[in-house]
Amino acid sequence: MCVNTPEQRIAVLAALHCGAVVYPCNQLYTTDELNRQFSIKKPDVIIVDSQFLSKIYDVKGEVPDNKIYVIGESKVHKTYNQLVDDGSVLGSTDILRNDDDTIIFLLQSS
Prior knowledge:
Blueprint: H1 6-17, H2 31-40, E1 46-49, H3 53-59, E2 68-71, E3 78-79, H4 80-86
Parallel strand pairs: 1-2, 2-3
Organism: Ciona savignyi
Protein name: AMP-dependent synthetase/ligase domain-containing protein
């Protein structure tokens, strides 16, 4: 859940390159709308702009804190800058490749 920034775009493209399914959240969604979205597909990792972190806490469900990355400042979670600097999401894991019929985006509207 991010505003349109270069960091958000880079995170989306990097996730797609790694074989992840990207499920963008609109920062204007209410808690109810986010709960509905997360009930359709539970996120494995959340990348969130620091200004929306409190809203994510209300709906994150079982996503552990170490799987939440913040664009901006955070004393609790790793930040986008740390993620880019050390590659900690995948570590030394090989990059996944998708088949042509694999879902890469799940888009939703309220």
